Structures are given as C-alpha cells and as structure tokens.
Amino acid sequence: MSSDPVSSRRLRDLARLRRVRDRIDREYAQPLDVEALARGVHMSAGHLSREFRRAYGESPYGYLMTRRIERAMALLRRGDLSVTEVCFEVGCSSLGTFSTRFTELVGVPPSVYRRRAAGATKGMPSCVAKQVTRPVRNREAPVVRPRLA
Known about the structure:
Blueprint: H1 3-27, H2 34-40, H3 45-56, H4 60-78, H5 83-89, H6 95-106, H7 110-117, H8 126-132
Helix pairs in contact: 1-4, 2-3
C-alpha cells in the first residue's frame, strides 16, 4: 500500500512534465528558461530538470534547443532568410550559441546546411522532409574526421 502514493505522485509529475514539453513545443521562439517553466507547473527548477532528464533523456534546455534547431533547419531549407535572421526567428539571442548548437546537432554549420539543403528536399512532401532532416539529439551527429593521405 505504501507504493500507491508514490505511483500517484509519479503520474502527476509525468503529466506536469508533459505540459512543460508541450509548452516548449508551442513557445520555442519565446524567451524560456527553466525557472519560468518550473514555476508554470509548480516545481522547483532543480526538480524539473532532474525529472525531465529522467523522463525524456535530456534537459529542458537541451530539448528547447533541439526544437529551435529543428525549426531553424526548415527555415534554412526555404532559403529566403539569412542565418542571422533564422537565429533570431527561432528565439535564440546569440548567433554564436545558435551556430555551435546547430553544428553539434546537425553536424555542419548553419551556413553550410543552408547551401546544401537548398534543393535537397524539393518535391518531397513536407511530412517526409521533416522526418528525413530531423536533427540527431544529444550530440550524436557523426564526427567528420579529416582524411590523411
């Protein structure tokens, strides 16, 4: 019987974490920080960060940046905005941080991605293009090593 209150609390926490994730998905371009997200679900920032990582495998900030990079990839494929414009459009306030995180997730800098992706998804349904071009999370982009020879 003592596990029932624990299970109930865990389910409530998971529901709150889902609300945080949904908020990040909706408001990725807005200024969001862990403290504000935590206040919105009546949790401490530390507890939110620990539980979010436990549930989703990455921190709330990491998840937010992945959402921003996914949107940035779509905007860069369109080709009508500069890298700087895309950076600010997706809610990043630092071009350097944006470029670094983009490179970590995608494997190439945003400017290179923009050049390469210009026609790569042309004629592809948007739902397929989104799946094919989704960034890899948690710094799993392949490391390109220079060939020596």
